[in-house]
Amino acid sequence: MQNNKKIAIIDLGTNSLRLQIFSLEKDQFELVDDFKEIIRLGDDIFKFGYITEDSLQNLIENLKQIKKICESKQVDKIRFIATASLRDTKNSEEIRESIIESLKLEPEIISGEKEAYFAYLAASSNFEINDSKVLITDIGGGSGEFVIVDDGKVVFSESTKLGCNRLLHEYFRNDPPLPSEIINFKNAMREFFTKRPFDRSIEHIICLGGTLNNVASIQAKTAVAQAKRVKYADRKFLKRFLRIIANNNIEKRKGIKGLEPKRADIILPASLLIDVLLDITGRSGFYTLSDGLRLGILIDTANQMGIKLSFQKNHENLKFSRVYDICKKYKGEIAHAEQVRKLSVILFNYFKGVLNLNDEFLELLEAAALLHDIGNHISYSQHHKHSYYLIINSDFIGFSNEEIEIIANIARYHRKSIPKKSHENFVALDENSQDIVKKLSALLRIADSLDRSHEQKVKNILLKERQDKFILTLMGKGDLTLEKAGVLKKKDFLEKLLNLEIEIL
């Protein structure tokens, strides 16, 4: 098998048609193309029970575009999945045969249970769900899938009719909705959910599906945050958002910044549904995962091809599995990165007391150590700045947006200038985060210097503290001249923070 494969995933739902093309190399994947069209097949299905000829022709025209994209990208495999769009329509077989005859593409109509499984796969690749109780939801247009994972094991799974298109047609007749319609809807959802094991033992809620992802994107403050695969929406924002959309008609909702116009109607039932779920479980917000179902299909497809992806090999530490993926994506020098990580841990444990560093900060230093040189992928001369940019724009697991900013800044200052008030990236941090960046970047500068030759010569470091200085003794093999010279060049920042001299032996 060739090292690189291009896999096309086509996802036909009741609300949208999506194509995503992934490049699959060894045990890693990367999104390389994306096509989306809101086609609203559900409007036909919920009004008439079947897909009309006009909607079929619109679907086929869009699929022709998708097929051309696949051909131009020379994909090796196409997986075409249809969910409630073809499960629930009376003329499902007729639609399927028309697609096959017109395009030579054969849709695989999956069950709700299979859809729930794909949702679980997607969430497991982007969240650490092995040590908590998590509710995974996939609110599509025609169905809603719910999976509970407890300590890494699926303990509940159900496919329901709670799709936002279907709910819109069933519960809302007026635009804007009447207060009584909203009350009736919320009561119906509460009654439904309280019959399921959705209670306050749930620690996190993860939502797949484009409509709730759109809600989280609206809350996101920056374009970088909006582009993240994982986003978070808190309930306080959701409450404010619900008041706005409930009191405005569909046309006025389209003017809300960030709201996808073709979701202006269905965003109300989706938002109300998740609000009821948050109330029942006592959660203060929810996570969203964009491209969720398609990621699950990709993982399943790769596994069918005999490929186990990197996160599946390292369930115990999914957070750092993703960090390694990012390092590999930008052709990072893994041996050097791991050496700097190892030396950073030794230095952190030596100096955490005198620098007043909490143990929880160690993971931030380790992540920065692994990623400090990825900017070389763009150019060497300013690679510390490029590393900052690449880290900020990467998708992590288990790190908050604030922590990613800190990691990026630590990596930014592993060489050249130390943090300054004139640096926009640094002053954007709060005072506490600035303090963390200063201390951890000072340690990273030393750790990086201790592998100046990139030959992993230093095997250990011994620290002795005297009244007026710290003495670092390097233990290793071969000539350590480069490493000692590197430390002498970069130790001044740490000395300033410690207010003591560092001597190298």
Name of the level-1 CATH class of the largest domain: Mainly Alpha
Counted up, domains total: 3
Biggest sheet features:
6 strands, mixed
Straight-line N-to-C gap:
51 Å
Helix tally?
Answer: 23
Strand content: 15-25%
- Give me the CATH fold name of the largest domain: Hypothetical protein af1432
CATH architecture descriptor text of the largest domain = Orthogonal Bundle
What sort of overall outline do the alpha carbons produce when their principal axes are compared? elongated
Averaged pLDDT: 93
Low-confidence runs of at least 5 consecutive residues:
none
Structural class of the helices, strands and pairings? alpha/beta
Widest β-sheet, arrangement of strands: 8-7-6-9-11-10
Relevant CATH superfamily of the largest domain: Hypothetical protein af1432
Query: How big is the Rg?
Result: 26 Å
Beta-strand segment tally = 14
Query: How helical, in percent, are the residues?
Result: 40-55%
